[in-house]
Amino acid sequence: MKFNAPLVLALAGVALAKGNSTNSQCKEVAKLTRLNDIVANTTLLNEYTDNNATKAAELEAKAAAGNTTLATLSSNTTLMTTCYQIFAVEDMEDDCDEMDAIQQANVVAANATLLAKYTKNNATKAAEFQAKVSAKAATLDALQSNTTLTAFCSTLNDKSSCKSMAKLIKQQDLVANTTALNDKFNGNATKVANYQAKVSAKAAKLATLMSNTTLLSTCEGLGITTAADVAQAAAIATTTASAKSAAVVVSPMAGAKVIALVSGLVYAIAML
After folding, report:
1. What is the pLDDT of residue 184?
2. 261: left (phi > 0), else alpha (psi -120 to 50), else beta?
3. Crossing angle of the two packed helices 21-39 and 42-49, in degrees rounded to 10
4. Which residues contact 143 (CB under 8 A, 6 or more apart)?
5. N or C: which end of the chain has fewer CB within 10 A?
6. How does 147-156 read in b/e, with b if 16+ C-beta sit within 10 Å?
7. Nearest CA to 155 among 209, 104, 218, 80?
């Protein structure tokens, strides 16, 4: 199913209404359809049951038992129209994840230090990893050439950044409210201090997010943050900075990027 650019933002929100009956029914359709696909494919069936005939029979019985439900749900054209939209969005989300994973893997494969660290200096494993990354070049090119997909992925990334910013703003507001902070931790000075340190360590990240005017506009458009939220957060940050004695501040952003890359390596390898 193809989508035009104006629909990308709307589609990005389709799967967000989790917990409602429509979403649950679509999940049931997907589950039962997948189950039928497995039992209809001997190779897949053997793979999922480890060639265990008893387990295979149980899976086939489970699929058969769900066929009436599947038929009933599938006959609801209104429901299926929504389900197809949800399935399409989920497929695009998977493509975004794959594209991101391959990109991260490419960075690692091209960085001798990272590659050596995460293959534990095993030259054979390093070569195998680089070969797998190279084999994914065509896939990455195909994904990146899909402008609808890249726009969709960009929207997802923006939403993630907006949610992260909203969370950081909320945490900063709490730290600035002594009464609320003490109430949250029942007056435990140690816990309060630890939380303050945690929020302080994220100050640079919040500042970077708030300095991106395009992102701020997107976040407001999505209803995740407001101009007032950002203005208040900026005021608190300024007050906090003024209260501190002069000191050299080392930005944690560069290290954070490396940590993010490293944490993504496991997923990247799994995707290859």
Report:
1. 93
2. alpha
3. 100
4. 95, 98, 99, 102, 149, 150
5. N
6. eebbebbebb
7. 218
- Ranges of H-type helices in the chain: 8-12, 21-39, 42-49, 53-74, 77-110, 112-118, 123-135, 137-144, 147-176, 178-184, 189-201, 203-210, 213-221, 227-243, 253-271
Predicted TM-score (pTM) of the model is 0.60
CA atoms in the 13 A half-sphere facing the CB of 22 = 16
Q: Which amino acid is at 205?
A: K
> What are the pLDDT digits (tens) for 16-33?
444 448 889 999 999 999
**DSSP 8-state symbol, 237:** H
Max CA distance (Å), the chain: 72
Q: How many CB atoms lie within 10 A of CB 250?
A: 9
Angle at which helices 137-144 and 147-176 cross, to 10°: 80
Helix axes 77-110, 253-271, angle to 10 degrees: 110
Sign of CA dihedral 21, 27, 33, 39: negative
**Distance from C-alpha of 196 to C-alpha of 193, rounded to nearest angstrom:** 5
Give the whole-angstrom CA distance, residue 264 versus residue 170.
Answer: 26
pLDDT attached to residue 243: 53
CB atoms within 10 A of CB 195: 17
